[in-house]
Structure formats: C-alpha cells, structure tokens
Amino acid sequence: MISAVQQYRQKQNLERRQRFAKIRAVLDQVEDLINITGYFPIGKSVYALLNTRAKELLVSMNEVMPSDALKDRISEYETRLKGLDLNDTSLISEDFELPQNDKQIIAMINALKRLRSALRSEHAKGRVDTQVYNLEDQRLQKLQLKISVETLIKRGENAYNSNMLGSARQYYEKALRTIDEHTYSDDYTQQRHEKIKASLEQITSELRDANSNDARKRKSDELEELFQPKKKW
Asked: Distance from CA of residue 87 to its chain's centroid?
C-alpha cells in the first residue's frame, strides 16, 4: 500500500514537472517576442497583448508548482500592465533600420511571421478586438513586405554598380513580383513600383546598347579578317 502511494505521488510529480516545462517553453517564446517588439514600428496593443499572455502563463506555472520567484514575476507583469492598453494602436516607435546582412534579414522576417502568428492565435481566442487585429496585422504584413522589397532593391543596386546587369535585372524583377503579389496598394508600394520599373527600363536599354555594340564589333572583326592579306604557304 505504501509503495502504491509512493508510485502515485511520483507519477503526479512527473506530470506536474512535464506540464510546468511545457508552459515554460511557451513563456520563453512569448517573452522572446516581447523583446523583439522594440525593433519594429508596431502598435502598443501588440506589446500589451504579449505581456498579458506572459502573465497568464506565469500564473499557470505558479498553479502547477508554486514559488515566491514566480509570484514576484507575476507582480512585475501586473505593474507593467497597469500602464498598457490592449486597444492602444499608437506606435511603440517609428524608428526602423533595415538589417545589413542576410542572417539579420532572415531573423527579422521570421520574427515578424511569429508576431503575426501570435496575434492571429490570440484573436482566434477572442482576446483581441477585430478592428485592432486587422490594423496591427496589416502593419506587420507591410513591414514584412518592406524588408523583402528593400533588400531586393539593395541587392539589385549592388549588382548594377558591379556591372552585373543580368543579376541586377533578376533582383528588380523579383522585387516587382513581391509587390504585385500583395493585394493592397499604398504610397510606399506605388513609389517602389515606379522606381523598380525605371531601373528595369534603364537596364534593358543598357543591355540593348551593349548587344548592339557587340554585334557591330563582331561584324567589324569579321570584315577585318576577310580583307586581311592572305598568307602564302
């Protein structure tokens, strides 16, 4: 009987630890997103939502395995949330700097995808007002588009400056397709669309001139070879 009770308690402890670890993993992801929000011009409502979610997870962890450390962290989040509003869509910051290397760009795009996924999940649970959700999701989507387009334009400019016209054209065409694949249109997409089209026209013109020059040079070389004195053997 004593052995059975011990086994039962061990099973309960194991289940508690497993549940605690599962909640902890989700909390780590949410807190990582909280840290990420400072790098993007997104609404305060997203920041408030993530902090609310983090506090709820801490409460769940404390219910599974209570501790003073968890209670202190819950209090910290409660204090922070007093100054936040889930319906405040004003921007946390308007500053944004395009990453300099491919790894940073990929990390930033993945972070935006995770933020959109978290926002979509909370909206599905009824924790986010639909109007707020639509506004914030569109902001994240536009930001994701901007990073992709600006990166492709930058690569196109670098290829053009290196006289790699074929590669430059491919980058610009991909940037144009990226814009066209989105259903919405605003000042940014229109301006970038015009800029890319102008760059492609310039490249097409230069490639045409280069091909014409090559053709003339080949013809001249052929004529020169034709009228060269014949060698006597």
From this structure: 23
